């Protein structure tokens, strides 16, 4: 066990005593601030000359209405306040609600926008209506449309706007002219211009259409969900409300039929052709100065091909192919091309995920590319990690090679245009966004997020021979050698994200609140989590639980070695989504280590999860059934010997509530006591203030009772 910092002074700090701090109010603050996401600037767009910045931000740390802002000449102004538009409230289309759920959108108002190439014309949807505004003057105005609008995007010249309505793709003239129908769904199962479930949830592809550079045509995805199994999502708390049909492809079943078409504004239509039987996943698409560019993936996810398409004939030619015996990891922003046409991609070589330009690796071994943010001229902007608790902004060009642009521990990203760099940084001190201009004055974009009522007290550890990155959080009132502290392991531990970063964020505030309630909290990113290289990620191929559980045990023991006052006879574990599965499996398989568990929105039977996510790690269930058995706690329900709380949102369309209901039924059949907390009208990510606050308090009360932890009274 190694530590990244000396042991903190654990003596009592009177300024942090619960009698004198409002730390107990954190659940309410997390609820009201949407986990401190409100008031934070996001969704940035830089004009090509770097002189104008557009972004979204709510007006304060507890305001849920997202507004459009503009920063130019060092001055920030509110470009569009949706509450001041005077429009009659409309109903948000169901397709937009689905898009927001996939994007984990937590605010209202203007939640997305798009601009023309010059960043002068902006369009956005509000309650199903289409709006536009100019950045060089004038008020926002509504544009008449043929129906409620989803995902509007202007052409590069800013004269027209494409949008989806009721599954059809249309193009409207922004000056009030024609509204063209480009493609209408042939059946109720078909949509044009929208991403299917697995693309938006698992592939980082949230879009379904792309303008040509000259604005004469649109590259469009056609999605036919007729082959896909339907889930019926209902709200049992409102029996008068009809259920909603969701096309959800479970592991081993049929996917949506996805094809690409070039739709000309002159009425022409050309299908883009590739071997869709061999490569049924469209993982990315774009249309740059060199023509349409797309990536397609085989069903087993072991092969990805990058294709260039001829928009006139629809023919394609291969530019690149990746193969991997486990799976090919999809990296956001790839593939892309430089101005000269050099392909920008990644390659897993030498134990690293390296950036490649023109087929050549250009980043050093040990640096793992996380995202390609864009190519300008022959320069590529990307994020990468050489230390998994940090993520930095990098630039590459042939003359200078790879150059790190961010400094200091944290999670950094950004944009660049016209000699201006936007650096967006999350650190343990908070969120900061800065415009850095060549030869000019730097400008900070205001962050209006609420100030948290407590400060995380994190000790950074490296556990075991694998140096598992681990965070240990202790109560502010803790005194070394005092009463033993019960322990709460609060990890996610899965492939979608990591929690142990120097980027701060709500998970650490939440962990510190549990610490103030009387627990030592351990958070660990074990094998299978991202940012430590391909081999680390792919350890879980065929078994998504055994190694991660072992790593949580290693982290727990390392934390106890560092702080001997941890009571290993009273250890709870909690998690959400994959973390919930990890918690359930851990308390079943290792009851001598974990003595209680809280499992939220957990996939208990991996055969009920979607094709792209599950088959990536476990293969096809008909070909590798044992992998699904090893990774599904439901088959081990009869082995439960410890208290278990199952929590699930009844409206969840990502991990459907059937997982928890079937797990509960299996436990009941095996006569294993457990608790179930259903959350009415809640999706995979709770946003309702009452639910968010109440859920945290319910969990801590359950853990106190299960681990015999008395409620702490200030002394």
Describe the model.
- The protein is α+β, with helices and mostly antiparallel strands.
- Among the domains are: 2-29 and 451-707, Rossmann fold, CATH 3.40.50.1820; 40-182, Prolyl oligopeptidase, N-terminal domain (Methylamine Dehydrogenase, Chain H).
- The strands form ten sheets. Strands 1-38-39-41-40-42-43-44-45 form a nine-stranded mixed β-sheet.
- β2 (42-46) and β3 (52-58) form a beta hairpin.
- α1 packs antiparallel against α11 (689-707).
- The longest helix is centred in the C-terminal third of the chain and has 19 residues, at 689-707.
- The chain starts with a strand and ends in an 8-residue tail after the last helix.
- The model is unreliable at 6-21 (pLDDT under 50).
Name its key features.
single chain, Methylamine Dehydrogenase, Chain H, 5-stranded mixed beta sheet, 16% helix, Rossmann fold
Topology, pairings included?
Layout (H helix, E strand, L loop, with lengths): L1 E2 L22 H7 L9 E5 L5 E7 L6 E8 L2 E6 L13 H10 L4 E2 L4 E2 L5 E6 L2 E6 L6 E3 L6 E5 L5 E6 L2 E6 L5 E5 L6 E3 L4 H6 L6 E3 L5 E8 L5 E4 L10 E4 L9 E8 L4 E4 L8 E8 L2 E7 L5 E7 L6 E8 L12 E2 L5 E7 L2 E6 L2 E2 L6 E9 L2 E7 L6 E6 L3 E4 L6 E7 L2 E8 L2 E8 L5 E3 L12 E6 L4 E6 L11 E5 L16 H11 L3 E6 L8 H4 L8 H17 L3 E11 L1 H12 L6 E5 L10 H8 L6 H6 L13 E6 L8 H12 L5 E5 L9 H19 L8
Parallel strand pairs: 4-6, 40-41, 40-42, 42-43, 43-44, 44-45
Antiparallel strand pairs: 1-38, 2-3, 3-4, 4-5, 7-8, 8-9, 9-10, 11-12, 12-13, 13-14, 15-17, 16-17, 17-20, 18-19, 20-21, 22-23, 23-24, 24-25, 26-27, 27-28, 28-29, 30-31, 31-32, 32-33, 34-35, 35-36, 36-37, 38-39, 39-41
Helix pairs in contact: 1-11
């Amino acid at each position: 066990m190694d530590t990244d910092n000396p042991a903190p002074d654990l003596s009592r700090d009177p300024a942090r005593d619960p009698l004198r701090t409002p730390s107990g109010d954190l659940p309410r603050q997390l609820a009201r601030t949407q986990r401190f996401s409100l008031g934070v600037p996001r969704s940035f767009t830089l004009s090509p000359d770097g002189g104008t910045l557009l972004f979204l931000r709510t007006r304060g740390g507890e305001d849920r209405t997202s507004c459009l802002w503009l920063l130019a000449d060092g001055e920030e102004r509110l470009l569009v306040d949706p509450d001041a538009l005077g429009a009659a409230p409309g109903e948000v289309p169901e397709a937009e609600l689905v898009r927001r759920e996939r994007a984990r959108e937590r605010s209202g108002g203007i939640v997305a926008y798009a601009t023309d190439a010059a960043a002068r014309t902006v369009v956005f949807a509000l309650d199903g209506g289409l709006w536009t505004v100019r950045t060089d003057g004038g008020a926002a105005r509504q544009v008449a449309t043929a129906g409620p609008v989803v995902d509007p995007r202007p052409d590069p010249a800013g004269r027209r706007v494409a949008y989806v309505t009721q599954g059809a793709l249309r193009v409207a003239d922004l000056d009030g002219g024609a509204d063209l129908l480009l493609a209408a769904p042939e059946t109720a199962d078909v949509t044009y211009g929208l991403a299917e479930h697995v693309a938006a949830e698992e592939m980082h592809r949230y879009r379904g259409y792309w303008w040509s550079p000259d604005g004469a045509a649109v590259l469009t995805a056609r999605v036919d969900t007729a082959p896909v199994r339907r889930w019926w999502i209902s709200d049992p708390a409102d029996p008068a409300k009809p259920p909603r049909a969701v096309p959800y492809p479970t592991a081993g079943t049929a996917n949506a039929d996805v094809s690409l078409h070039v739709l000309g504004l002159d009425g022409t239509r050309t299908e883009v052709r590739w071997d869709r039987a061999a490569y049924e996943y469209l993982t990315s698409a774009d249309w740059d100065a060199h023509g349409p560019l797309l990536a397609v993936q085989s069903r087993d996810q072991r092969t990805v091909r990058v294709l260039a398409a001829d928009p006139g004939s629809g023919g394609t030619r291969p530019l690149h192919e990746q193969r991997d015996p486990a799976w090919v990891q999809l990296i956001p922003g790839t593939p892309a091309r430089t101005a000269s046409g050099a392909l920008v991609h990644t390659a897993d070589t030498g134990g690293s995920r390296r950036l490649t330009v023109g087929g050549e690796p250009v980043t050093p071994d040990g640096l793992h590319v996380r995202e390609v943010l864009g190519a300008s001229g022959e320069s590529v902007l990307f994020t990468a990690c050489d230390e998994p608790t940090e993520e930095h902004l990098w630039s590459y060009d042939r003359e200078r090679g790879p150059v790190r642009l961010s400094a200091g521990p944290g999670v950094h990203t950004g944009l660049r245009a016209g000699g201006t760099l936007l650096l967006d940084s999350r650190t343990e001190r908070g969120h900061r966004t800065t415009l850095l201009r060549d030869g000019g004055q730097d400008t900070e974009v205001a962050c209006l997020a609420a100030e948290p009522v407590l400060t995380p007290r994190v000790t950074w550890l490296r556990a075991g021979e694998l140096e598992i990155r681990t965070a240990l959080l202790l109560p502010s009132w803790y005194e070394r050698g005092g009463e033993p502290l019960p322990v709460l392991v609060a990890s996610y531990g899965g492939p979608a994200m990591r929690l142990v970063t120097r980027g701060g964020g709500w998970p650490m505030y939440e962990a510190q609140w549990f610490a103030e309630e009387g627990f030592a909290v351990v958070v660990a990113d074990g094998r299978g989590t991202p940012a430590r290289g391909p081999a680390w990620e792919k350890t879980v191929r065929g078994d998504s639980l055994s190694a991660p559980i072992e790593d949580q045990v290693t982290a727990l023991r390392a934390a106890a070695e560092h702080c001997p006052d941890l009571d290993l006879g009273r250890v709870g574990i909690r998690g959400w989504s994959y973390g919930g599965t990890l918690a359930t499996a851990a308390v079943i398989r290792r009851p001598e280590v974990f003595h209680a568990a809280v499992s939220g929105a957990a996939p208990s039977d991996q055969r009920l999860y979607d094709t792209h996510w599950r088959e990536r790690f476990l293969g096809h269930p008909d070909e590798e059934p044992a992998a699904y058995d090893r990774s599904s706690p439901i088959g081990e329900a009869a082995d439960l010997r410890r208290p278990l709380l199952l929590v699930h949102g009844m409206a969840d369309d990502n991990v459907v509530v059937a997982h928890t209901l079937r797990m509960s039924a299996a436990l009941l059949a095996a006569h294993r006591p457990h608790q179930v907390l259903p959350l009415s009208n809640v999706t995979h990510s709770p946003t309702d203030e009452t639910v968010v606050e109440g859920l945290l308090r319910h969990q801590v009360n359950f853990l106190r009772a299960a681990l015999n932890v008395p409620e702490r009274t200030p002394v």
